[in-house]
Amino acid sequence: MNLKELYQEIILDHGKNPRNLKSINDYNKDAKGHNPLCGDKVHIYLKLNNNMKIEDISFEGSGCAISMASASIMTELFKGKEKKDVKEIVNDFLNMIKEKSELSTNILNDDEKTKLMCLSGVKQYPMRVKCATLSWHTLTSAMNNDKEDVNTENVKI
Amino acid sequence: MNLKELYQEIILDHGKNPRNLKSINDYNKDAKGHNPLCGDKVHIYLKLNNNMKIEDISFEGSGCAISMASASIMTELFKGKEKKDVKEIVNDFLNMIKEKSELSTNILNDDEKTKLMCLSGVKQYPMRVKCATLSWHTLTSAMNNDKEDVNTENVKI
Amino acid sequence: MNIDNIKKEFPIFNNKVHNNDLVYLDSANSSQKPKTVVDRIYDFYTKEFSNVGRSVHYLAVAATNLYENTRVSVQKYLNAKDKDEIVFTKGATEAINLVANTFGQKYLKEGDEVLITELEHHSNYVPWHYLRNSKGIKIEFAEINNDGEITLESIEKKITSKTKIIAITHISNVTGAILPIKEITKLAHSKNIPILVDGCQGAPHLKLDMQDLDCDFYAISCHKMYGPTGLGILYAKKKWLEDLPPYQGGGGMIKEVKKEGISYGDLPNKYEAGTMATAQVIAFNESIKFLEKIGIKNIVSHEKELMEYGLEILKKNNSVKIIGNPKNKGSVISFTIEGVHPHDIATILDEDGVAIRAGHHCCQILHEKLGLAATARASLGVYNVKSDFDQLNDSINKCKKIFDLK
Amino acid sequence: MNIDNIKKEFPIFNNKVHNNDLVYLDSANSSQKPKTVVDRIYDFYTKEFSNVGRSVHYLAVAATNLYENTRVSVQKYLNAKDKDEIVFTKGATEAINLVANTFGQKYLKEGDEVLITELEHHSNYVPWHYLRNSKGIKIEFAEINNDGEITLESIEKKITSKTKIIAITHISNVTGAILPIKEITKLAHSKNIPILVDGCQGAPHLKLDMQDLDCDFYAISCHKMYGPTGLGILYAKKKWLEDLPPYQGGGGMIKEVKKEGISYGDLPNKYEAGTMATAQVIAFNESIKFLEKIGIKNIVSHEKELMEYGLEILKKNNSVKIIGNPKNKGSVISFTIEGVHPHDIATILDEDGVAIRAGHHCCQILHEKLGLAATARASLGVYNVKSDFDQLNDSINKCKKIFDLK
Ligand SMILES: Cc1ncc(COP(=O)(O)O)c(C=O)c1O
Ligand SMILES: Cc1ncc(COP(=O)(O)O)c(C=O)c1O
């Protein structure tokens, strides 16, 4: 185990100064997520334009450094992405956290991958995996227009 | 431990052919007892005359050899005894079963004591003590006009 | 693992009872524990102990994983569809109370009928009786036949348009009758009636397949299944656990708590309020492993062989009357001896190290029907051997001698 | 037994966590177990195992006696008047549910008020919430003051003519405030209101005397009291146990069962339905012996000394903010570090072998009041030593360094 891998500079930076931490006025999709174990909460807002592109994405919420950083990095990443690509990227990220150590999707460029890989240190901390994945599950829920809030006790990882 | 002490001839005899196993028509005191653990049941009937003497005593019920023999021997013993002596005899018997090995009351003669001592083998079988004492507690209850049935799970021994 | 010398997995048999070898024929009451189960408890408390699911430190993470591992093992052992269908309780009694209480709250009203049988253990009657008192429901009893069985027909006869749930035992803990659960379930479902199975005696002795049985609820006592005391399992179809209200309230089963109201957590947490029996759950994984190592097929055939041997011997003993004669009989033989009260039998047998049970076995309804205040009961576990029945028979003969019977 | 090296009675401390000595500061969650308790479980299962109270054979008689011995030990430890006032449950959560359910059934109706406090654990709120849903009662919350205390006055303020029961914690598991139970009980009784005390945090750390406290109900979690998991205790005055309806239904708690109706057994059986946590109850006798051997006086003064030392050290650490400042404080210190989420604190501390808990500690009402989503909590057991706080402080400083705080 290695705390340095978990709390890398970039995580601490995003954790302290999260990007896109706000609501969007004209969002057309949103979802809430909740980790009952530690009280982390997140609310994801999305503005999908007519071309099925994510024109804007933001989040509100509170939580530990890992969950805030993960949401911050995620929102940066998805701004401008196509709707059709979201699922593949999310799955690739979840796989990276759970099983593999690499990202394999072609949709992301190397810079983007490097940034996401910062979150891979969490793999060694099973209780913290949920912190890292909460916002990602919530994003999926927003895309699917799920009525139920995401609850990390309920989803598989 | 010694089964022979528990199942003495006299116990087996009284168990098989219980004396006074009937109801009395003109009883003026009665009480029911119950051992929920093994299902033993007893109903004691008493006829106390104007001189506060036990003119007649009987029981109905079903149970193991020990409980039937104990009720049978007890009813034989008390026929003709004075009301005022009942408490002392019952206590002496219960003490003999619980703690001491002897009977100490002067109310009983040697023959009576010898007969009662047959039940002392039960002391070595804690789970069977309740079988031996059920009818005695029920007698006490009848004398006291208790409204509640005796339940061996409830009385101290 | 060879079932013929399985006894050596159970440390209790190294001990003497009144200077005799222990002949344990009281497994329907509670089974003995294999060493692996007891060791697991010891190791957990001395090396790994922590509470589950509430802290992020190392020990807590490890304990939480171990706890959830058992849930998955149980799911697989029962062939349940989803691990969230496995709820840990303090015993089968609590599992049945949980269903009666929550199902009763939501679905039962005055005049509704709950159908049970004359074979039921008090644990599968008293919880329904509460609803009779509080809601004015009715309890109907399917009747046994002369062999001490409950047939599909005896159930069918008692089903009315008001029957809202059927609650029946898998194996009678007195006559040993194995009920045709799959057929009864089919019948019940054809009339849209859910079914609860009291699996206390079924779970340790039969191959279990929840998806095949298709029952809605199945209650298990872990201490009868080579596991620790203070633990039970409720299997319930997910749709019911999602649909029914929560049972006990406390930590761990909630989502959000405010002064004005409360929302409940998801499955399986919703039904696991408060600190659970952590060590027991973790150790129960070893019980499942033990059963899997022997293989349920081998257990069934071993116990069947024993049963046939035992019945043969006891039937030859002219004073012994066996209670019930079900075609499908599992794991228990209840009997009486004309002229010797069961309580006396038990005491005399105990002197020889033979542990049986005497009484009404928490089945007063059945005993009243049979006209008996009490019976003696010999019941089996995997560790029994044929010679246990030889000893039982010898000790019964000793009873007869003491009571001067032929 | 010398409290200064009591750690050696607990085998868990022979193990390393991430190659570090274990600094266990999570006892409010669950305590570690002395070897005597674990050994007792082992010996019981391997040498003496049988179910309790249902058979007459040797092992059953012995187990029943052992089981009842614990009841008497607990009675004495709590200075309860009668051994029948001690009911074994699966945990404090069940104990509170038992009271809420049975008292609610018999005595609460629409518009009635139950008075609890803002300090309560979910276990002492959710069961009452059920009655809000089913019966339309109201729940009132006595408010904490700025020090995180509940005073006699804050209780008095909320008592109305509709208050039917008061249910409060003995020690807050977040602020550590020790409530003036005796005074509150006197006040409640002067208005004919019964009182339930959630003794989860009180029982392991305070001298207990039920007759002196005079409360009507007292709930205990044995696993927080150096005992096994899956066991709790409800102390209740005899008059209540006799008066209230039974809770769960099943074997062992009945007197007579017929098709038409059921009569219930006497105390304490009435509230102990089904097979109980036999091994756990028997082992808990060793927990009581352990506590008695050290002596509660010594425990109180040892923990007080530790507490003062810990507070002193943490107060000097300029980033640490301690939650609550009660005059009477027992066994827990909750804190936050500005700029580091409690969850991150717990992970970083864990790396050094320091086990604390982070979260809302099942006290969401309190956390909402405090405006905090979560706190970090260090809590004490008899095995803690001053250097545990030194290590805690060092590890907190490591957090600060990682998060670049001054
Ligand atoms: C104050 C308080 N009440 C109730 C509980 C619940 O106890 P248990 O989970 O053992 O039932 C706890 C422990 O988590 C507690 O600290
Ligand atoms: C058929 C049956 N149902 C229910 C029970 C009750 O199980 P427990 O006492 O473990 O809750 C038993 C065992 O006593 C049983 O044999």
Kindly describe this structure:
The complex is a heterotetramer, with two copies of chain A (157 residues) and two copies of chain C (406 residues). Chain A is α+β, with helices and mostly antiparallel strands. Chain A has one domain (3-144): Alpha-Beta Complex (Sufe protein. Chain: A), CATH 3.90.1010.10. Helices cover 43% and strands 17% of the residues of chain A. Chain A has six helices and four strands. The longest helix of chain A is centred in the last third of the chain and has 18 residues, at 126-143. Chain C has 406 residues and is α/β, with parallel strands linked by helices. Chain C contains 13 helices and 17 strands. A seven-stranded mixed β-sheet of chain C has the order 4-10-9-8-7-5-6, sandwiched between helices. In chain C, strands 13-14-17-16 form a four-stranded antiparallel β-sheet, covered by helices on one side. Chain C has a two-stranded antiparallel sheet with strand order 1-2. Chains C and D meet through α1, α2, α3, α4 and β11 of C and α1, α2, α3, α4 and β11 of D. The structure holds pyridoxal-5'-phosphate (PLP) (2 copies). One pyridoxal-5'-phosphate sits between chains C (28, 91-93, 121, 123-124, 169, 173, 198, 200-201, 221, 232, 362) and D (250-251, 274-275).
